[in-house]
Amino acid sequence: MRFTVDDRLFVLTGAGISAESGLATFRGSGGLWNGYRVDQVATPEAWHANPELVWRFYSMRRRDALAAQPNAAHLALATIEQRLGDRFYLCTQNVDDLHERAGSHRVHHMHGSLFQSRCVRCKAPFPDKALYETAASLPRCPDCGEPVRPHIVWFGEIPMDMEGIYRELGRATVVLVVGTSGSVYPAAGIVDIANQKGIRTIYVGPEEPLNADAFDEMIQGTATEVLPKFL
Ligand code: OAD
After folding, report:
1. With contact defined as beta carbons under 8 Å apart, do 157 and 66 qualify?
2. Which residues of 101-132 are buried (b: 16+ CB within 10 A; e: fewer)?
């Protein structure tokens, strides 16, 4: 299968596309980090209770992502974008920057970005690759002195620019979903909206996602096995 300029492609990626770059998926690792459930370190409640723990978690993820390289699946999407131009839109649930490093430009990080932080009061995100792993090193805003947090959408928070996502979805002719378990909403509901609009939907991954029944087509295989075949 090849996507052409007659298509308007909306791509949704999840942790599975970065798995072959060596980054752990959420459910694959049993949802655990150092014995903590992800929802114990990726929530506003965790931040209020223990910001040091939260920053150690995201510092570890920064370190892992910095060491990882984009794989053939990230590269294939960047090549498809070159061909389709503004008829291509990539919405990722991933907070790593592997899509950008593969050459993708039209990328929206609906769950935020690992390499940005923001002051809890000023709220403006800024680039940040630093590691904060001790209570003494926790960052504070240089302007107002309030704590700086990861620019990440935590459980219970609203994903970024849902309006833009729905606008792009409304224009799509094909929705391609890669490597996501279909368990976290609203991302998992994108396929349902596509179905209501009569948009063709395709899933790529080694296992069936929870919402497998909602797709027109399932292509079984890993992201690096399947996506280069679209070129
Ligand atoms: P999950 O860990 O829930 O699911 C990963 C999916 O990737 C699974 O369906 C696997 O079958 C699939 N997979 C594994 N290896 C793959 C490979 N080589 N190629 C393709 N697919 C592969 O991750 P997500 O669905 O992305 O949210 O998780 C969704 C959200 O839950 C995340 O963005 C995060 C998390 O908690 C927040 O942090 C808000």
Report:
1. no
2. bbebebbebbbbbbbbbbbeeeeebeebeeeb
Q: Which residues contact 87 (CB under 8 A, 6 or more apart)?
A: 5, 7, 8, 9
Q: Identify the residues whose C-beta falls under 6 Å from ligand 1.
A: 14-17, 19-20, 25-28, 38, 42, 93, 111, 153, 155, 179-181, 183-184, 205-207, 209, 222-223
Contacts of 218 (CB under 8 A, 6+ apart): 202, 203, 208, 212
Pocket test for ligand 1, best of 184, 191, 220, 227 (most atoms within 8 A of CB): 184
- CA distance linking residue 167 with residue 212, whole number of Å: 24
Q: Which strand (E) or helix (H) includes residue 113? A: strand 112-119
What pLDDT, in 10s, does the model give residues 42-76?
Answer: 999 999 999 999 999 999 999 999 999 999 999 99
Cis omega before residue 186 (within 30°)? yes
What is the model's pTM? 0.96
Q: What distance in Å separates the CA atoms of residue 44 and residue 26, rounded to the nearest whole number?
A: 18
**Helices and strands (H, E) in the chain, number of each type:** 9, 11
Atom number, ligand 1, closest to the C-alpha of residue 26: 2
Of the listed 74, 99, 111, 151, which one is catalytic? 111
